[in-house]
Amino acid sequence: MKFTKLTALAVTTALVAPAAIAQEMTIVSWGGAYTKSQKNAYHDPYSAKSGVTIINDDSSAEAVAKLRAMNEAGNVTWDVVDVVAADAIRLCDEGLAMEIDPDTMLAPAPDGTSAADDFGDLLVSDCFIPQIVYSTTFGYRTDLVGDTAPTSVCAVFDTDAYPGKRSLEKRPINNMEWALICDGVAKDDVYDVLATPEGQDKALAKLDTIKDDVIWWSAGADTPQLLADGEIVMGSTYNGRLFSVIEEQKQPVAMLWDAQVFDLDGWIIPAGLSDERKKQALDYIMFATDTQRLADQAKWISYGPARASSAPLVGKHAELGIDMAPHMPTDPNNAQNTFLYNYEFWADYRDDIDGKFQAWLAK
Predict the structure, then answer these.
(1) Distance of CA 66 to CAs 259, 296, 329, 352, Å?
(2) What's the alpha-carbon Rg for the chain, to the nearest Å?
(3) Which of 58, 65, 307, 349 is buried most deeply by CB count within 10 Å?
């Protein structure tokens, strides 16, 4: 066969084409300041190292429903998904997330401590790779609360002392717990009470007292924006979102740490990926959850890293230059009256209480 210039061009194109096609991963998270912190700490360094292009999808709030639908359709389009611990437990129980062996699939600490020991009790599910400790708490407008700033979470239910709109997440989690606490239930008894129909009705009755004053949010960015616009006097959201509106945007907003609800957030790898995609996802997870990377995320957002070995490496904010430790929900000054989220309770009761809560909202 005669070797023409056209043949040479075809051969050259065939040889270079695979390298010219960028590998891609779809990583699902929550958006806003949180995704920005992941992009800076994990995604960009990983892309620089591996050449993989990362596509961000901000659908974590709908992760369980969407992964169920993808699995049923046999078309899983996500590679790594950021979820709260309770959702990880549900996805694992339903076979929608792959199991992780921390000591072979996650990096050890720099001193050789195994990943299992380094993450410790935060490994709450066989499918869950912890990333951060965060809290859901309240922010309030300092110029709208009068001379007496709120010190108790129950100020949310006191519309006489603190008139105006408040924002709450459009789901039962946390709202039901706060309602029971502010209706006189001891913190240690909250989940025993909430496990009963009578307890659920009691929580909804308490929420009824402020229902007309609530703006319901679905995205973590909603409350900070409502606070910045002065549309609410106080509202719940993630502590990292409030850090952003207070320290980065310099809005007249303060944090109410009372009865902040500690929770865990981290990664799952969906079940049903091809071997190639699974290998790529595991490579990303190995990189993104090592000691240094988890500490690096805390340079961008006020969430505590889930590894014990990462905590001493937390320093100053990468742009603001302020010490990040006092802004962590785990700081002793902020953690004097916390409420511990019960992962197993919500994994067991979420669907039933969700239905009851949504029916109450529609009334």
Answers:
(1) 31, 30, 30, 18
(2) 23
(3) 307
Residue with token string 């920005």: 36
For residue 91, give Cα distances in angstroms to 5, 294, 345.
55, 24, 15
* C-alpha torsion 262→264→265→270, nearest 10: -140
Summarize pLDDT for 86-109 with one digit per residue, the tens. Answer: 899 999 999 999 999 999 999 999
Q: What does the pLDDT read at residue 341?
A: 87
Tens of pLDDT, residues 228-259: 999 999 999 999 899 989 998 999 999 999 99
Q: What is the pTM of this model?
A: 0.72
Is residue 287 within 8 Å of 28, Cβ to Cβ? Answer: no
Mean pLDDT to the nearest integer, 215-222: 92
The amino acid present at 255, given as its one-letter code, is M
SS3 135: strand
CA dist 158 and 153 (Å) reads 10
- In this structure, what token pair is assigned to residue 219? 């995205």
CA 222, 228, 232, 238: dihedral to nearest 10 degrees? 40
For residues 270 and 252, the answer to whether their CB atoms sit within 8 Å is no
Side chain identity at residue 176, one-letter code: M
Q: 315 in helix, strand or coil?
A: coil
- 156-167 mean pLDDT: 98
DSSP per-residue letters across 248-317: IS--SEEEEEEEEEEEEEEEE-BTT--HHHHHHHHHHHHHHTSHHHHHHHTTTSS-EESSTTTGGG--B-
Q: What are 37-89's pLDDT values in tens digits?
A: 999 999 999 999 999 999 999 999 899 999 999 999 999 999 999 999 989 99
CA distances from 142 to 75, 234, 243, 335 (A): 48, 9, 15, 21
Q: Map out the domains of the chain with their CATH numbers.
A: 23-133+265-327 (3.40.190.10), 136-262+338-362 (3.40.190.10)
Helix (H/G/I), strand (E/B), else coil: 23? coil
d(CA 108, CA 219): 34
CA 290, 292, 293, 297 dihedral sign is positive
